[in-house]
User: Fold these one by one.
Assistant:
Number 1:
Amino acid sequence: MKKINKTLLFIFCLFFLTCNIKAESLKSLKAQLAKDEANQAALVKKQKNVQNKIKSANKEISSLEKDIERYEDEIDDLLEQIDELEIDIEKKKKEIDSLLSFLQVSNGDNIYLEYVFEAKDFTDFIYRSAVVEELTKYNDDLIDEMYNLIEEDKKLQVELKNKIAKSEASIKDLDKKLKNYNVSLADLEDAHSDVAAEIKSRKKTIEYYESIYKANGCKEDVDLVVCISSTNAKGFVRPLTKGTITSEWGYRICPVHGREIHSGIDIGVPLNTPVYASAAGTVSGITTKSSCGGNIVTINHIVNGKQYRSVYMHLASINVKIGQAVNINTIVGKSGGGGFTLRKNGGWDTCSTGAHLHFTIRNGWTGSNSVNPRNFVTFPSKGKSFSSRF
């Protein structure tokens, strides 16, 4: 039955395109690892020379950079507008609730009529009638105002989604142009493992996949998602109970590092804050004490039938192991960064300047194509804080 289910899943992927990424197998992962191990010195050299290589592409990519910068400014503005609208909506809601509570229009009691007919004389009757009419009109106006705010919020959410899509399309175009110069967006990522740490981590992941393939009787050329079972999650949630957004996902020109892709959203939190899995899945990678990225946990997910990975960087400690099944209540580690993990602790995590979580979502279980976490998780705008995971 298990083999039949795997075959059906594979056919489903082929004909209905739910597997919307390039298939990867244990065999292909091993081949790529062997290739990278053989060329480790060249990879290190390439990592150091990326900025020099793309200088020659200046003319070709400058217009795309301007487009991306414009989109990101517009996205920031929309996020601020949405934050303000949602605050106004919440205020209106509380005001309406308070007014309805005051009027006590519940349990079938008509408090309006009681109030009116308790009038002492005709003048008082007219006064009370006017008060009721005014209160009713005020409540109706409040409801109309809240409805209009909600409709405006919906429009801005659609506009935000479109802007993010346009920004991502421009970044994809940039990726295509950079490949002509033997550079990819992955080479520009600001937070990543150094080559040696990355290879070591991938070896451990492959060892885990080997055990699963053997246990399930899969040949090495079978696609990972066909051989490895995973819980289907409905969506992602925030990986922290509270925090402040300090940096956005996207392409940028950094005064210190030059052109770079910020592959995730940075969330400022105190040192040793619990970090949770953003969705149900299986831990697929652990990197320890990388010079750029620090302690890193990677989790494989199936969300609404599609493959994703979530990545948690700059951790002070790791609480999970490769192959462990997790859910949104699982603490994967505790936040690090800054002085705790900088040079005085052995020179690792040199890309981190302060305590925070770098949270990344990637398409697929392999590859390095990060996507904007805002496509999957609701976060406040840059500089704003949140106080729940939902």
Note: Helices lie at 2-16, 26-38, 40-55, 58-103, 111-117, 122-179, 195-216, 224-227.
Number 2:
Amino acid sequence: MNPVKSILDHEKVAVSKEEYARIQENLSYYESRNGKANYTNTDYQLREREVKHLPIARTACKKIAGLIYNEQAEFKIDNEVASKFVNEILKQDRFNKNFERYLESALALGGMAMRPYVDGERIRVAFIQAPVFFPSQANTQDVSSAVIAIKSVKSGRSTIKYYTLLEVHEWLADGQYKISNELYMSERKDQLGGRVPLSDVYEGLEEVVTFNNLSRPLFTYLRTPGMNNKDINSSLGLSIFDNAKTTIDFINTTYDEFAWEVKMGQRRVAVPAQTVRTFFDKNGDKVIIKQHFDPDQNVFVQLDSGADDKSVGIHDLTTDIRSDSYIAAINEGLRLFEMQIGVSAGMFTFDGKSMKTATEVVSENSDTYQLRNSVVSLVEHSISELIVSICELAKATGLYNGEIPSLDEITISLDDGIFTDKNAQLDYWSKALAAGLVPKRYAIEKALGMTEEQAKALANEIDRESEETMNRNRSQFDTEVYGE
């Protein structure tokens, strides 16, 4: 076949070049690829230096991902057989640990996909990051078909071959779900190349696999919340910092200038040439200048003031570093960045003077809390879809014989302890109980985070102790009043 220049040129891919370029640009911000800066020194020579930067994009994604998901997440299914099967699969595959890591990438690049696959006698979960996930049939609400790229490299004696396996997931007219595997090879890293046999890399892999009775695609696409204002017709999500790139550039430019000023602001003292002694080596063909000062320091600079100059002296050339101005500018940039990505003020900045109380941090009106809730709802729905796909794939391959759960039967419990003010929560439910708005069992369940059975048992124990205390007090009262 004729070589294909790019995956975007594949007939099944429905992603614009502008959207793919945006994802690549987001990746460069996430990786903090800032390159080098050119400048002209005092001798009018062109020099090059590394650009100093703050990894603000990566830091923001990592921090928010940690607030959303952690290893305390739990998955519950009404069907006990399905619940046990799915939890065992996710536990063996270290899903909780891996998901938090890849969620960081999804926030940085606008989304990711998850796909179950068969590995021997096990079902495992593959995480597909945004640069290798290409929707083929989609609307702005959902992605129903897609092309997934898997890259590999083979090195020979004189050449390097770049292989790309394309998994084409699509629905057929009769309701069947079809996966087509296509392998491409190129000697250039930036090209997809020509199609070659699957056996060149993947021995035993079938070109076409079809499934019957699937209720949904064998992948689930998790996109970030909010509208894609870069392309309102795109089904792909935006990075959380997609609309804050100019602010990231400002912060990094200011930080780079600050770091350079600190470097250039080291102490310099000009000393007259008369204070420097010159002597020749034994061959007489080389001049060595030796200072009368400590040879291990670089503070002093020779200044030729002229042989007839009577004003011999030492002058401090050190200039003050504008640290306060630079730090204030960086903090102002960080405050603007917080506003643009939708988190509460003070998440990345700290003035050293004030600290928010726990109640203020976890307030349900805070921007950070609202952002977390938006992402959490999407994460819970995406994982529920993944669980359905796991069960359907396992049943289709004979690894599971139970019922397929529906989305309504799946409960995803994400630990939100960091956003829970225990004292405020206890006070709220205590007042609700005192006002007679909720039963005691329900108040205990919500205030202490217990299950319904645990809360009921604790409520019964409290009632029993209260009754025993009341009987003991009544007995003591009767004794004191009426005697034995």
Note: The first helix runs from residue 17 to 30.
Number 3:
Amino acid sequence: MTLKVISAEAILFEGEVDWVTLPGQMGSFTVLHNHASLISTLDAGNIAYGNHGEERHETPIKGGVADVDRNVVSVCIY
């Protein structure tokens, strides 16, 4: 699945991942391949992502919005 993490200033990450964990306002949640479509607001915390068997990566955020649709996870942060 494709993960895109963008801010008003730059594209922070764009690439293929097997999983991503996001800090939702109702609690953290993990998105895997073929996840149902959703839109969620995000709280301050870390976006964690990676591929099975590879190193875990984290990006701290102050908040934002996530959109999951057809194996594309788009995250707009502030």
Note: The chain has a mean pLDDT of 96.
Number 4:
Amino acid sequence: MNEPRVAFHTLGCKVNQYDTAGVAETFRRAGYRVVPFRDEAEVYVINTCAVTAGGEKSSRQAIRQASRRNQAAVIAVVGCYVQRDPAGVREIPGVRVLGGTAGKTELMELVRRALAGADRVERILALPEEFEEPGVPSRVGDRGLGRVRAVLKVQEGCDESCAYCIIPATRGRGRSRSPAAALAEAKALAGSGVRELVVAGVHLGSFPGLGGLLTELQWVEGIARIRLSSLEPFGIDAVLEAQASLAKVCPHLHLPLQSGSSRVLARMRRPYTAEEYAATVARARKLIPGLAVTTDCLVGFPGESESDFQATRRLVEDLKMTRLHVFSFSARPGTSAATLPDRVPPAMVEERRRELEETGRRLARAFAAGHIGREVSVLVEEQRDGWWRGKTGDYLTLRFAGPPGEDLTNRLVRVLVTGEDKGRLVPDAPLG
């Protein structure tokens, strides 16, 4: 009998990528063959996002795509969208299994019940107080980013109360993994061939002793790079000091700004001012020469004036951000921002989004152009369309033509940068 096929689709953050990878390993161990989401399968697992209305829309689209590919398939929908609005997910044709953000180790059993004939199986648990271990060991290709780079989840949930954010309701209170468990998985990942770890969490900076964990990870044999996922821009001095002292920790930070207006930040209930954010970036760059800083910006928050928006644009330019992720305000039911007055007209929100995205493109190109004429170290991920591709330590994508017949995958190589293309580096050949 042919082995059954399962396909996965993940929306949203690196924490979701990690969670999906753990579920995928459970299915592999049960005898399933993992196939691309675009292929026909007997089971489709969709790990959803609810951070924005757009994330929920994309989640619904993915469910319908799976249903069209195989109407007889078991479609299992899990994650933040289910946790926030299970009734809305139930209404989507084809959904057979529902699960929230907790208890993903039990998903295999829920799918078995659906395959055995159950019309619909649901298990949406109360959000736990302790960190849930994935329940299966790591292997090459897991944790969401391929065999070169892997996500290492060390923290879950958030205790902050930002006015626009639904995450505390869908992920629960902040809870951290034991350092011993995180280190054990890092060693397993290194043993399977992974060269770069992306240390991730919903509110990663709240992990107690994060700097100490980075120091332990520095000594894991086989790991060439350690990268931090998104960090909230407050209470991270010890992390910055550790990052500055550890050779394997990449010179890159993602520090969400959201707004360059202190007035708007206060309405958002963000626990810092624009001036404090700028001081954090300056302190980080002083400690870590050549540091790349990427950020998130939220435009169109209720009450945002034109001067507030221009303050955001000026701040990201003054700080020479290396890449912007720009989001339009999306009222999330259950958040305090959903009931705020003074909504910004949709056409104006769209205009501001486009303007800030254009600013982001200019900043990204300027940062990339600053590498021209320099030798950089790139961790090679794949060969595509005749080019080798990978990322630098400061998180720039680079493509180059390698030596004929030589496999450079998963290797660190030195490359001379000769140009940039839309914020990506374009050299001639590796130096060795």
Note: DSSP finds 13 helices and 18 strands in the chain.
